[in-house]
Amino acid sequence: MYTVAVVGATGLVGRTMLKLLEERNFPIANLIPVASENSVGKIIKFKNKEYAIVSMAEAIALKPNIALFSAGGNVSLQFAPLFAQAGTTVIDNSSAWRMDPTKKLVVPEVNADILGKDDKIIANPNCSTIQLVVALKPLHDVLKIKRVVVSTYQSVTGTGISAVNQLMNERQGIEGQMAYKYKIDLNAIPQIDIFMDNGYTKEEMKMVNETKKIMGDDTIKLTSTTVRIPVMGGHSESVNIEFENEFDRDQVVSLLQNFPGISVQDDLENQIYPMPMTAEGKDAVFVGRIRRDESQAKTLNMWIVSDNLRKGAATNAIQIAEYLVSKALI
Length: 330
Fold this sequence. Notes:
The protein is an alpha/beta fold. It has 2 domains: 2-124 and 313-326, Rossmann fold (3-Layer(aba) Sandwich), CATH 3.40.50; 128-308, Dihydrodipicolinate Reductase, domain 2 (2-Layer Sandwich). It is 32% helix and 24% strand. The chain is built from 10 helices and 14 strands. The protein has a 6-stranded parallel β-sheet, with helices on both faces. Strand 12, helix 9 and strand 13 (285-292) form a beta-alpha-beta unit. The protein is globular and about 60 Å long. The chain starts with a strand and ends with a helix.
């Protein structure tokens, strides 16, 4: 049984982490909920018990076995090393450590085997990257990916509660705080995060760089366009993949169906395919609309959807913790 701290326990991802720790019956002896100074002392419920939210300093002093972080990059940069120095294994959901060459960036179905006992700060990838690499991995192993073109359609929950409130306010005609520069209801905003010097957004470059690191292959060429849309259930991705090897559709479907964490929903006759509203609350990566690109050889189109708060964030982090426990790495 383990002492587990959840840092950012009052946020959307933090609350989802708490829910999943209970759902998945993670072996917790003691829970330490951590949040900002404004929330210290507030009560949360977990497994029918009440826990008071504590400060960062108090949580570090308690030396938890595991700390699940979802409190933003600056908080992670400041406090994750302090937890690590106290002997805690940190699994961080921010972008702070993802591209640090000394830190592992992990999606358990893809590359959990790179983890060891000395990994005290482990990075959880970007939500849109996680669902992408889960679907790419079984195909890359057999068909060898040359190039990926991905366009995302991302839920407002990826921004946080302020964006959810903006969407709900707009639907009710209420003026309120704006998480985005523009209205999000009845709109699509082709900007997620800030723009970089190359004209891409930070989110788009995260997908490029994180995919190569997780897949362990810098030869994969990837380009991305990320878009925020007014949905709640999860992120969707239109993905075009060029392979080195020839394939047939049945082979692709079989590879996907037999890979852990993937659920294939591809029944055109009955109009069954992945959607955010049916992915919400589930942990799988859903793949459908699987078809050959008729404009180019050895190229495939598919549609990927996953709940960004679960597999795209909280579930993946807890799966990393479960792997560490199963391999006695904590």
